[in-house]
């Protein structure tokens, strides 16, 4: 799930602004030669040898860690860039203080000097806002710090900047009219990720455009990245954006739009607009940052299986000179039977305190399916990593499913960390196979505490915590996380030192998915025979389900194999007399179940696929 912005276009547009006036860029360093550029140096004031180096490929050349983070997207990345790999240095006895120093730059006759560069940083413990800065000197002895990052917080959680972040900093107070100017990028950290730098320029004209609105942040209204179709309608979408005026001029007649869009899951291409709403802001002064805008109306996402996005856009009277940041959004999926907070492992982490620990994801069932169909939690999908020379196959994982007590408030403000606020209803132990590798996705069945059988019944309106525990020697493992989406609802929590708590909302979100299935394929309260008919039977390429009711009826249609394992499920509203067609070209030969469930009962029929 990539937080999508047209970031590369943003870089191009930004540099177009500073290159329009002739002669304003008087220094540039692209890092397109081997090693450090002439006169440049790298040092570590902590004397631990954590140094900057030149690189051309983050994945294969200059980083041995195993991450599923996108490669550096700088405009000139293919020709090389500088990188400081804090993760590669591992856990140090003291923080590194790593510096990249430029050669002397002549700024004589330049009454204004602006430093412009592309960079990308990832932190875990030490926030980048105060610990990764640009220092400037005109004598090589006295250094003045300038802040680069904002909101890249760390504090025991993965936090990444934009990729790339294009920084434009006014360094005139130190560099203007100086014959000898030095730049220093300095990072104080310990076992963070990396800081990448490229395309450094000095210019005499303020690179800030006159007209530059941006969507700074937005409300992500989905409680889980992936939600089963039968449960997605429980999320009523509200829309809220935060806009900034990054330009030098006031912006008038601002329009802020909220969209729900459908995307092709195979190509990622947009298929169409499902919902749109907007609101107006009369004026926004220069320098106003993260102005909160609520966009009226709400949207109930009664959507079929597919890939979707919530997105926001801002515009104004004046044509925006840097319009790539005028549109931002995040994806979400509607699935057959899967709950997930993410779409893939991105990094891995563990509590720093040591000892046994666990991570849990919060999932909730909705009302819509209360009397239509009964679901169960069949299993979990999870991921982790270990440091060399440990072997992933040495790790055992304790999986547990808890039901949250009804008296716990929706914001968890009265949740008791001792575990008394929830009840254990399912569990299993997973012995990782010897051939396992870091960031593999593992599947494990969950056994009911009550019956001892696979599958734990899930209640309508029920709230659950699915957890993965790492005990004893296995506590050295790092559970996999994804950091792209900021969850605005209770999401991932931790168990540390005998207490549940930690990251109730926000990020990162654990790779810990809940797989559902039908609890039963029998008809406890059967519908009339006329309610459902199947044709052709036998069949090979498609099957028609003829549905007939005497009045408009909400129904859930399910296709399953003969063992009751669901292949497809779909909610339909107000069904009366209609035929639903399903393509089954990919089905193997065998016997299958077609089932319709309503508030008054169910009807299940068999059909045969012959190839």
In short:
The chain is mainly β. The protein is built from 4 helices and 41 strands. It folds into 4 domains: 7-203, Jelly Rolls, CATH 2.60.120.200; 213-335, Immunoglobulins (Immunoglobulin-like, Sandwich); 345-518, Jelly Rolls, CATH 2.60.120; 529-609, Macroglobulin (MG2) domain (Immunoglobulin-like), CATH 2.60.40.1930.
Notes on the protein architecture:
- This protein folds into 4 domains: 197 residues, Jelly Rolls, CATH 2.60.120.200; 123 residues, Immunoglobulin-like (Sandwich); 174 residues, Jelly Rolls; 81 residues, Sandwich (Immunoglobulin-like).
- A hairpin with a 6-residue loop joins β16 and β17.
- The strands form 8 sheets. Strands 1, 3, 4, 6, 9, 10 and 12 form a 7-stranded antiparallel β-sheet that branches.
- Helices cover 4% and strands 47% of the residues.
- The N terminus is likely disordered.
- The protein is mainly β and 611 residues long.
């Amino acid at each position: 799930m990539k937080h999508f912005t047209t970031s590369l276009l943003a870089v191009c547009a930004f540099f177009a602004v500073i290159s329009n006036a002739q002669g304003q860029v008087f220094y540039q360093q692209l890092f397109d030669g081997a090693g450090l550029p002439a006169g440049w140096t790298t040092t570590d004031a902590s004397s631990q040898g954590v140094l900057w180096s030149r690189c051309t490929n983050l994945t294969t050349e200059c980083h041995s860690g195993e991450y599923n983070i996108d490669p550096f997207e700088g405009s000139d990345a293919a020709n090389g860039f500088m990188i400081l790999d804090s993760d590669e240095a591992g856990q140090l006895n003291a923080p590194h203080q790593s510096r990249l120093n430029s050669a002397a730059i002549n700024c004589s006759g330049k009454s204004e000097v602006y430093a412009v560069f592309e960079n990308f940083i990832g932190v875990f413990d030490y926030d980048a806002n105060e610990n990764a800065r640009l220092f400037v000197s005109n004598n090589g002895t006295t250094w003045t710090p300038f802040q680069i990052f904002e909101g890249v917080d760390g504090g025991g959680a993965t936090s990444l900047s934009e990729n790339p972040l294009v920084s434009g900093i006014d360094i005139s107070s130190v560099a203007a009219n100086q014959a000898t100017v030095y730049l220093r990028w300095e990072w104080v950290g310990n076992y963070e990720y990396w800081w990448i730098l490229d395309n450094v320029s000095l210019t005499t004209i303020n690179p800030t455009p006159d007209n530059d609105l941006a969507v700074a942040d937005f409300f992500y209204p989905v409680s889980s990245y992936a939600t089963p179709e039968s449960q997605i309608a429980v999320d009523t979408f509200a829309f809220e954006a935060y806009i900034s005026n990054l330009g030098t001029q006031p912006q008038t007649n601002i329009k802020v739009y909220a969209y729900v869009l459908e995307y092709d899951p195979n190509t990622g291409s947009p298929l169409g607009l499902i919902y749109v709403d907007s609101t107006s802001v009369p004026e926004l002064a220069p320098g106003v940052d993260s102005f909160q805008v609520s966009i009226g109306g709400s949207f109930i996402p009664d959507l079929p299986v597919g890939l979707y996005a919530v997105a926001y856009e801002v515009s104004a009277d004046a044509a925006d000179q840097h319009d790539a940041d005028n549109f931002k959004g995040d994806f979400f999926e509607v699935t057959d039977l899967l709950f997930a907070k993410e779409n893939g492992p991105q990094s891995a982490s563990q509590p720093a305190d040591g000892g046994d620990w666990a991570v849990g994801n919060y999932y909730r069932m909705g009302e819509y399916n209360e009397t239509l169909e009964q679901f169960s939690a069949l299993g979990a999908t999870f991921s982790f990593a270990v440091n060399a020379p440990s072997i992933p196959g040495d790790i055992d994982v304790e999986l547990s499913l808890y039901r949250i007590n009804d008296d716990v408030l929706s914001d968890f403000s009265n949740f008791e960390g001792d575990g008394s606020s929830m009840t254990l209803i399912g569990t299993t132990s997973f012995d990782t196979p010897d051939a396992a590798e870091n960031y593999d996705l593992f599947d494990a069945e969950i056994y009911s505490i009550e019956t001892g059988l696979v599958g734990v019944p899930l209640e309508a309106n029920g709230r659950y915590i699915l957890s993965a525990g790492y005990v004893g020697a296995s506590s050295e493992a790092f559970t996999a996380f994804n950091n792209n989406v900021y969850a605005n609802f209770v999401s991932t929590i931790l168990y540390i030192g005998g207490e549940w708590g930690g990251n109730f909302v926000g990020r990162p979100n654990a790779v810990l998915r809940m797989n559902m299935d039908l609890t039963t394929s029998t008809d406890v309260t059967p519908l009339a025979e006329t309610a459902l008919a199947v044709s052709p039977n036998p069949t090979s390429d498609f099957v028609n389900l003829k549905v007939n009711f005497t009045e408009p009826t909400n129904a859930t249609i399910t296709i399953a194999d003969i063992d009751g394992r669901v292949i497809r499920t779909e909610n339909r509203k107000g069904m009366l007399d209609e035929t639903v067609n399903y393509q089954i070209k990919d089905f193997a030969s065998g016997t299958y179940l077609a089932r319709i469930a309503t508030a008054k009962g169910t009807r299940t029929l068999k059909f045969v696929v012959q190839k």
